[in-house]
Specification:
Layout lengths: L1 H72 L5 H16 L2 E3 L12 E10 L3 E6 L2 E3 L2 E4 L1 E9 L1 H4 L1
Parallel strand pairs: 2-6
Antiparallel strand pairs: 1-4, 3-6, 4-5
């Protein structure tokens, strides 16, 4: 009978040991799964960041072309050229490029760069030399503007 009790105790100990190992293996499996999930999430975030950066670089390289087309649009009535310029503008807009509206606005150092000043309403944008742009809400090029100096609104009246 003692022998049966010893065998039963050994079996109980073995079962307890196996249950402990099972819980340990299950915990290790859960940690590994969590690590894998976190790594996948980081990988996807990095891939998205690389895609955004690539788009930003491409659009920055296209901006001189957009500027030149805008300048040419002021001096031509060619309908074919106007259609091409409109299509390019549509494509860059769909990519998230947004023009900064500057004319007759207060000068804003966060989105504009003053390249000159001349007589006019104090701190008011009088002329835009180069358009500024946001890409998906991020400033990628400040607008280059001419700002008014020396004349307050009261002095103009």
């Amino acid at each position: 009978m003692n022998k049966n009790k010893d065998i039963q105790n050994q079996n109980d100990n073995k079962i307890q040991e196996l249950e402990t190992k099972l819980v340990e293996m299950e915990n290790n499996w859960k940690r590994a799964l969590a690590d894998y999930t976190n790594q996948q999430k980081r990988f996807n975030e990095e891939r998205e960041e690389i895609r955004k950066r690539a788009n930003e670089i491409l659009l920055l390289n296209l901006l001189p072309i957009v500027d030149n087309m805008d300048m040419l649009l002021q001096h031509t009535n060619d309908m074919g050229f106007k259609m091409i310029a409109k299509e390019l503008q549509k494509i860059v807009s769909m990519a998230g490029l947004e023009e900064i509206n500057t004319l007759d606005k207060e000068f804003d150092v966060t989105t504009m760069e003053a390249v000159d000043s001349k007589e006019g309403e104090l701190n008011k944008v009088l002329e835009t030399k180069a358009k500024g742009y946001f890409l998906n809400g991020k400033l990628i090029r400040p607008a280059k503007v001419v700002v008014g100096k020396n004349i307050n609104k009261e002095e103009q009246k």
